[in-house]
Amino acid sequence: MTSQRLPAEWEPQDAVMLTWPHKNTPWNWIHEDVTELYEALATVISDYADVVIAAPEGELDSIRARLEAMGAPMEYIYLYPCTSNDTWARDHGPLTVETPDGFKLLDFKFNGWGNKFPHDLDDQVTHQLFAQKAFPYASLEAQNWILEGGSIETDGQGTLLTTSSCLLNKNRNPDLSKEEIESRLKSAFGARKINWLDHGYLAGDDTDSHVDTLARLCPNNTIVYTTCDDEHDEHYSSLKKMEDQLKTFTNADGEPYRLLPLPWAGAVLGRDSGLRLPSTYANFLVVNEAVLVPIYELPMDEEALEVVSQAFPGYEIMGIPCLPLIEQGGSLHCITMQIPEGVLEQF
């Protein structure tokens, strides 16, 4: 049994990491819209945790000035010069595990979701931040295999949830078998049981079905998951099979899950492309006493917030407008990475 453990997202956090959008990222065509979203998000997060921002060196002063003009509490916001290809911090940021010797940042290889997109700079973001002492009370350990943070969910108590279509895809770790990947997951994160989802996808998603767009582990042995109630929709069959499989899952202690279905957002189309976008409500962020939920100016937004509130009793539930984010195929959880308590400040 490994002596290190990946904490659940609802455990105490010091900070949330963001990699800032700039004009040399795919956001260039809606740069102002997405920058305003990031500014609002950083301001909201700072009510609950510190914010660690990786951004181009030449833009740090401008970002700081704009955040100050919004009234953001800059004493909780840390900016570091970093080069990047894109902004998906969930997938190129560190996965922080708890060990007997303190916290350790696991820096996995990132290959642009199977070499679909440029990624050489993103693959170095965690190292760049660590070198600047952004995470002063953690060590760094490079991992020689590919894993994205959005592809796994943990309850911090021995259970890991993932999708076979992503982790077993030959565009990630073609030389590793399922058994070898499972062994590495257990060793890295202190998992005793891996639940593999074999169904579920969202049109417009480039990640090969990251689990954080489909099904999320929550406190009290609960799973919140994406559903489709339209039998004529292309997603209906796959998401129904996913739901049926979730009903068979148990945690590492053999206990079945309480399942809470999220509403179906329907067909949301790109503003210019007209292509279908992955408008999932499952891509929420837990940050200490709050849960920030992506919303899309749809009638189902309020129902989604209500479902999440059932999964997180006692938390503040807040909707964050995320239409600009899904234009590039991801949402709120995809652009953030939580940093556990004890990494930025000692207990």
Observed structural traits:
single chain; 347 residues; alpha/beta; L-arginine/glycine Amidinotransferase, Chain A; 4-stranded mixed β-sheet; 3-stranded mixed β-sheet; 10 helices; globular
What does this entry look like structurally?
Strand 13 (268-269) and strand 14 form a beta hairpin. Helix 1 (31-45) packs across helix 2 (60-70). This protein has a domain at 13-156 and 261-340: L-arginine/glycine Amidinotransferase, Chain A. 24% of the residues lie in helices and 26% in strands. The radius of gyration is 19 Å and the shape is globular. It is an alpha/beta fold and 347 residues long. The strands form six sheets. The chain has a four-stranded mixed beta sheet with strand order 3-2-1-18, sandwiched between helices. A three-stranded mixed beta sheet has the order 4-5-6, covered by helices on one side. It has a three-stranded mixed beta sheet with strand order 7-8-9, sandwiched between helices. The model has no long low-confidence stretch (mean pLDDT 97).
